[in-house]
UniProtKB/TrEMBL annotation:
Keywords: Transferase. GO terms for molecular function: glycosyltransferase activity. This is Glycosyltransferase family 4 protein. The keyword Repeat does not apply. It comes from Paracoccus haeundaensis. Gene3D superfamilies: Glycogen Phosphorylase B. InterPro entries: Glycosyltransferase_grp1. CDD domains: GT4_PimA-like. It comes from the Bacteria. Pfam families: Glyco_trans_1_4.
Amino acid sequence: MDTTLPPDRIGYVINTYPRPSQTFIRREIRALEAAGLTVARFAMRRDDQPVLSAEDQAEADRTEYVLDRGALALGMALIRAVIRHPRSLLRALSAGRRGGPGRGPLRQVIYLAEAAILADRSRQLGLTHLHAHFGTNSADLVRYVRMLGGPGYSVTFHGPEEFDGPHTLLLRDKVAEARFAVAVSAFGRSQLARWAPFDTWDRIKVVHCGIDPSLFAGPVPLPPGPDAHDPLRVVCIGRFAEQKGQVLLIEAMARCTAPVHLTLVGDGPLRAEIQRAIRAYGLDTRVTLAGWQDEAGVRDALSAAHVMAMPSFAEGLPVALMEAMAAGRPCIATLIAGIPELMVDGQTGWLIPAGSEDDLAKALDTAARTPRDQLERMGAAARTRALTRHDIATEAGKLAALFADSRNR
């Protein structure tokens, strides 16, 4: 008799999906499916931003949105769940009292209602495991599903948000009750170990976010320059948010002595502040705001640049950085979180202290005065390192093995 277990049926749980900044999740899901797993997508809500690409639209079409069911369905699911598992309501209320602002008892009861829907769907679809991305409310949901008799769960913790509020987010409980936990870097694993029980450390694994090597099959040659006729062309890709440091990059641009042009790809809550800084420093002709771009647009922006800048104050391990390196572009980035695990100072680019506009300006000037052939060598080294460490098929294979190994927990 064949005793081989059937392939895992996994439910992926994300608060808002798909989003322009979450292409790595789509790649991970597709790679798992290519490896033979069945993956159901669940999100609590749709993104307010328009879907930019056909790939993301296809993901949206395959995603179940829990809040689309409406308040009545949520309420009825909650009542059924509490009747079957009365202690779950007490645990949700307790979690709310222990949480911080915005995570009180009412919010946790809402999460419990959403989890009741997910528990029902998990049974209907025969799911063997739930995997959440981010240790915030998506991790609350999969934890509550388990309380309601659903499958076991795991969480990929990215940082920095989870590490900023470990007590508010109940990180210790989420890791302790998970079949396993994933960090995207060794640094991230160390931060989880700070708060997780010691006897769970062996279940905290590192699985990198991945890139698709086929999208970076051959690096596009550097644009003309940098020289007396063509400025250094720098691209910065990321959400306009406090942790990303774009305003510091504008300040550094104002201090540069070499000719440099900057393109900012992205958008977000700090857009107005960034625009004010550009005007205040008189950089309107030297800084371009390109808005959000789909994957093809990001690759085009990288192809048009000599160098990628990532002046972050806080990070996990930025996917935009590994994509820039895979595109054969040397990078300027800060010495924080998982970034030094990927970059090698002086070989794949320049690593600088976070928060220093002087060091950032010096790095921009250094890059602008670096001979083109040296930039090409650094870009080639960056490409090799990124493709070696972040192949999505390899990383998804690690995750699939974890799903299989943890099934009986």
